[in-house]
Amino acid sequence: MRTRFRPDRRLTARMVLTVFLLGLVYVAFVAVLVSLLRSWVAIVLIAGGVLAVQYWCSDRIALAGMGARIVNPQQEPRLHGIVDRLCAAADMPKPRVAVADTDLPNAFATGRNTERAVVCVTTGLLRRLDTGELEGVLAHELSHIAHRDVTVMTLAAFLGVLAGMVTRFMFYSQLFGGRRRNGDQTYLLLVLVMAVSAMVYALSFLLIRALSRYRELAADRAGATLTGRPSVLASALTKVTGDMARIPTRDLRTAQAFNAFFFTPAVGPRPSLATLLSTHPSLQRRLDQLAQISAELQEAAPEA
What we know:
The chain has one domain. The chain has 11 helices and 4 strands.
């Protein structure tokens, strides 16, 4: 899909590298399972089926998880008007538009391709942001669709879930189905499977987090460049991050499964050490980048 969003070659390179490395990790994972276990075929087939469902139904799963609904222009004229203007400016197909009825101020994009793409905002975000700030957030989310990183993140994030599923299945199958074997042999097999699975999950976790942080910076750049107003995106970031601390902890925990897709993570203040494990770069890092873009745009503007 060609749009007026600038191609981000560094983001594309990181997505290709992440998928390649995850592929290597999971090929090695399956190879170890094949060497250790006899019932791996059925397990891999089941896991593959779940992955297919996740891929083909990712948009519906995400919307259902957030309790969101698709809305038409009559129901949300302001929201549709902004999306219409941005899609025209970006020369891209208009995605479906959804609203989640929650006070959590956030937004996300999902869908396996442009035809199935959805951009969703919460009622909490609609109440808190003015039209300019909302435009900045939606430009950020539309860039995720244009750059196709939504699809990559959907698949990459599920691979970690897949490793956990396979591990639990094998643990219980060996625990309750391994009585015919020597007890020490069964115990050693379980330890090996759990150790390999833990390593796979840890590597996947770090790779996905690194890609997620970079893609958020790339979306900030693309959205700010499209609107030509980095300051409104910075204002939205500051406002949403500040209000996130006022959201009840229970509501934040409920939404944390979507953190890799959210505009800002559903977490309260965190120590700097946690940044390495975060799905998003720090607020200061994002604001610094937007300030730099603003300065570059002012330098490029023709003098009156």
